[in-house]
Protein 1
Amino acid sequence: MKKEKEQILIIGLGKFGMNVAKELSKYDVEVMAVDESSELVDEASKYVTHAARVDAEDIEALRKLGIREFDVAIIGIGDNIESSLMVALTLKELNIPYIIAKSRDKKHTSLLNMIGVDKVIQPEKDAGVRIAKSLMHKSIIERVEFGKEYSVIEIETPKEWVGSALNRLNVRAKYGINIVCVKKNDGKVLIPAADYVIEEKDNLMLITPNKEIEPNGYLGRLL
């Protein structure tokens, strides 16, 4: 039976982990956050579904949390490389489908890659926000932000747009979204005319207000 909500685990609630927790609170997902600091756990409990005080190096304690059931695990431990690697190994052993880990330096990154972590990043607030957004907007292939107001994004075509002509969608007038070009399934790129009809396997490059990508924005509801 398909889960109603995606389940995400955050291990380590430093700046990075806490910012991921705050960003994910905007979305309809279940999030568990763990850390050995009672203060950080109390803070995270304002944003996540569950928060628990657990020593990340206590592997049995992590197992008892039922972390096998999670779809994504985010390791926010960066300063203690040994602890970070032990947690990553445990998550791999438990067959967590997708693992993201914060890295302190190139050596740390290399070791995490050797273990098989799916995505390794460095570091803090901005990266945490981007990771949360990428999890919730899997249809966004690339995103480049221009200040606080606008982004250029490449997306998979929303199913609601398939079969519609651009001038019928009228997203520029309604939402300030400009469809700049279309990448076809064979790799060809074209600048579409107003009467271009969007096809299912098109990728679209858009210039869009950032507010429309947020959970309550027009694109946020589609992607």
Note: Residues 56 and 62 are 7 Å apart (CA to CA).
Protein 2
Amino acid sequence: MADSYSEVTSQNWFSRIGESIKGILFGIIVIPLMVILLWWNEGRAVTTANSLKEASGAVVHVAADKVDPANEKKLVHVTGDAKAEGPVVDTDYGVSVPALRLVRTEEIYQWVENKRSETRQKVGGGEETTTTYTYDKKWVDAPVKSVEFKKPDGHTNEGDLVAGSANFSAEKVTLGAFTVPEDFVKQMGSPIKRAVTDADLATLPSDLKEGTKIQDGAFYIGPNPKEPKIGDVRTTFEIVKPGTFTILAAQLSETFEPYQTKAGDAIDFIEEGTVSSEKMFKDAAAGNMMITWLVRVLGFLFMAFGFMAIMKPLSVLGSVIPFIGDIIGMGTGLISFALAGTISFLVIAIAWIVVRPLLGIVMLALAIGGFIYTRKLAAATKPATV
């Protein structure tokens, strides 16, 4: 059951001016950092693209039933049945299962604080902010420090996890004639739920047996699973079963290691089932593109926030009459996003000119167009700031 607590705080116009001036420092710091981030991101994207292109031309397709010394240190693509020579064991809980790996997830029942604020401008440039703190009981993956809550009274957390979440691998996993290294095994497959049994309960360490029950296929440490209390712990397990897997990595004697490309990236792909090398490279290229655009968007947004912070004093000055401050704020917001877009395009364009001149030139033209548009936009907003 959730409950809430609200508080109202006020800030006068002079105080807001002071805070907005402090915000300029944030903008001055974050804008150069985002330029560096965008430049690094484009370099990373090019390196990964070149590494994938290099690796795709070097791959050797091999059978899993035989290790050929002639392929030593070469990038090999191999598909075979992955098997574990023994069970995978969770030493903390004593759970032992025939699988490639075992994933343990521990959660604890805790109070969680959520915060929501609404700000209203007042005539004269002041602001009134209503902040509502909502408290809910939830299952979380780590204990929550209730002493840091705005209203800790009545929301006190207690208890701790038993051992935390973990990812265990079988002692030895083979793929045909090859041995799969542990760091590869921990990347294998999509885990599926493995319900705990009475036999698992019987093998629990003595210090855990008392007070532990089975509820919905999980271990439950607490008095009553149907009515969770603060500090109760539940533990679930997932496994990756033996099966067919495809590995794309460097052959190292009878095992594997990441393949180091001359372009810069190391290649080690593992997928469940029979997967062609072409698809593995295609998936990796798609992942590279997704990461590239995600960083681009984040860099652009934080840069825009930086410009907004720098121009914030203008809207605060005009907020003596609230709607005037809103108009100025909209104008500076548009300028901030236009500036951030222009600089982002400029950085990306320069980064790509060397690698793909045509693409870089097109983006540079867009950046110049954005700069011209920003100047016109800034000129158009000047009358509103007078």
Note: The chain has two domains: 13-51+288-385, 59-260.
Protein 3
Amino acid sequence: MGGLAALAREAGHKVTGCDAAVYPPMSEQLRSLGIELIEGFGVDQLALNPDIFVVGNVVSRAHLADGSAKFPLMEAILDAGLPYTSGPQWLAEQVLQGRHVIAVAGTHGKTTTTAMIAWILEYTGLQPGFLVGGVPLNFGVSARLGSGATFVIEADEYDTAFFDKRSKFVHYRPRTAVLNNLEFDHADIFDNLGAIERQFHHLVRTVPPSGRILVNGLEESLARVLHMGCWSEVRSFGAAISDFSAAGEPDAFDVLYQGRTVAKVKWALTGVHNQLNALAAIAAAGHVGVSPAEAAKALQSFENVKRRMELRGTVALQGGSIAVYDDFAHHPTAIRTTIDGLRRKVGPGSRILAVFEPRSNTMKLGTMKAQLPWCLEGADLAFCHGGALGWDAHEALAGMGAKAQVADSIDALVGQVIAQARAADHILCMSNGGFGDIHRKLLKALEQA
């Protein structure tokens, strides 16, 4: 929604927005664009008299325990019969119409892969528009209209709005669709993996016959999606036998097209997951005329996305500095691959302290709590913020023994980490929220200690 606001502002509209507890980097980006942020969903905002209200999917018809509406502004909009639409619908009608849309879908890697594709197209002079669910460091903003024919968009499978329960991505009608991976997630709206696969097939149905679908060849779930029916050209990536594959380590590898080396990537990113993201980005750029060699050259200057293994600071100690990182990982698979990527970077001799917050709706429900020991096993120590959960984090992590600790508050969690940290450690903080500003608190506490 922040990216939509930025696009509307760039298009010349006056834009305001309301939410609860907006946090960086989006809050800072919006204010820098001159977009007023209003805390809460008060009815007094009707006085702004906008042409239209663009409604995000956080808004619902829910009521609080005292019977009052959780979103009184929405109730007032409905009562007054005022015009409103969903974010994806507004985007489809006002921005995407008539452009070559490259949509990136998947349980993991959407933000990074979308940012990669946008940077490849920018580097090669195609001046794309884009909407990314984060802030790509190469651009400094999460969205722009662009003057070229292409628009690159992060295509989320989460539902559109309280009045439109389809996945967001069915609105985008891409000509190039990237299916990065597919696992069970969003347990608050999907009953099982099959339900998500059905939504992905709805996306496949919208790709024109002259379009192209790029699919991760390692994913059985995506094979099932395409087996439901496909009416477009398909290219695969990732598997040993696929159109696009890689040979070498994730930070320096050859790109192979149908077994023949066509490019080389050497960059600062780590992890097999980013290697797969790169293959997807190179394949997608190829559909709009960018050669693999040009795309690979662009990726060498790709700076990643804020909150993707972002180094927030270091504290110098005798014997080596302690580094504190921020990462958006919140699904067990993402946590595991993020830790693995950092392990490949720092080597087996350095300690990794994983500090995480089960904050997503799926994690709060406890649907994936049994996977936590598995996803954290690559870390030397694990620290979990267990407050406000409907399940017992102590019990879920009991199998890790002394390697895992749980705290019910951020301050207590910081205390646990500080008590265990030592010179040359790498502290990896993972959450899809602001995490109580734990990164700054850790750095401050380390300096004091």
Note: The mean pLDDT is 93.
